[in-house]
């Protein structure tokens, strides 16, 4: 029997992925303070605290994108971010007293940023394809901040944090 349901389209995919990243950003918002608290390096602590403030803005921007497409903000469990933050939690537990803790936290944080960069890059492209100019601009603003954060974390990783871990070996 033929179904009379219209096949899902790119607009549905955009809405579903928006719910996924909305869930992810809220999860990151809950995780960043724990990472800031755990970090030994004051620079790393400051980086996490700065990105916490930016992440609040990312959540607000996503709510604007929901408004642009005429939908209520809703989250859909994102298995990827659950896995990435679970690994981060393991590092915090297993390397609690280790000089390598900050290197582990940096690696976990960069995995988060790379996930976000991947999602925001895709969603910005889809928004443009769907003619959602305002949504594309909002997603682009966040994408730029995720990329900047990734660069800042790389710099921290290359400098004091990893040096400290090696010196303690
Ligand atoms: Fe974000
Ligand atoms: Fe981020």
Write a structural description:
With 169 residues, the chain is mostly helical. The chain contains 5 helices and no strands. The radius of gyration is 18 Å and the shape is elongated. The mean pLDDT is 94. One fe (ii) ion binds next to helix 2, helix 4 and helix 5.
Give a summary of the structure in a few sentences.
It contains 5 helices and no strands. The N and C termini lie far apart (68 Å).
Question: How would you describe this structure in keywords?
Answer:
169 residues, mainly alpha, 5 helices, binds fe (ii) ion
On the 0 to 100 scale, the average pLDDT is: 94
Oligomer: single chain
Uncertain runs: none
Rg from C-alpha positions? 18 Å
Order of secondary-structure elements: HHHHH
Span from first to last CA? 68 Å
* Binned strand content: under 5%
- Quickly give the structural class: mainly alpha
Number of β-strand runs:
0
Question: What's the arrangement of secondary structure elements?
Answer:
Layout: H1 10-38, H2 42-68, H3 79-94, H4 101-129, H5 133-167
Helix pairs in contact: 1-2, 1-3, 1-4, 2-5, 3-4, 4-5
Bound molecules: fe (ii) ion (2 copies).
């Amino acid at each position: 029997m033929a179904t009379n349901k219209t096949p899902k389209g790119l607009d549905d995919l955009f809405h579903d992925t928006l719910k996924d990243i909305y869930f992810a950003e809220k999860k990151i918002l809950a995780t960043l303070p724990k990472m800031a608290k755990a970090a030994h390096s004051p620079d790393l602590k400051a980086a996490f605290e700065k990105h916490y403030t930016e992440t609040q803005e990312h959540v607000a921007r996503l709510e604007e994108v929901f408004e642009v497409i005429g939908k209520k903000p809703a989250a859909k469990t994102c298995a990827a971010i659950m896995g990435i933050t679970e690994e981060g939690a393991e590092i915090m537990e297993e390397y609690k007293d280790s000089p390598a803790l900050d290197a582990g936290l940096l690696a976990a944080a960069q995995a988060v940023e790379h996930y976000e960069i991947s999602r925001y890059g895709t969603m910005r492209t889809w928004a443009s394809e769907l003619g959602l100019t305002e949504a594309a601009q909002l997603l682009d603003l966040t994408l730029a901040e995720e990329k900047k954060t990734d660069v800042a974390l790389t710099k921290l990783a290359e400098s004091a944090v990893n040096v400290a871990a090696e010196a303690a070996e």
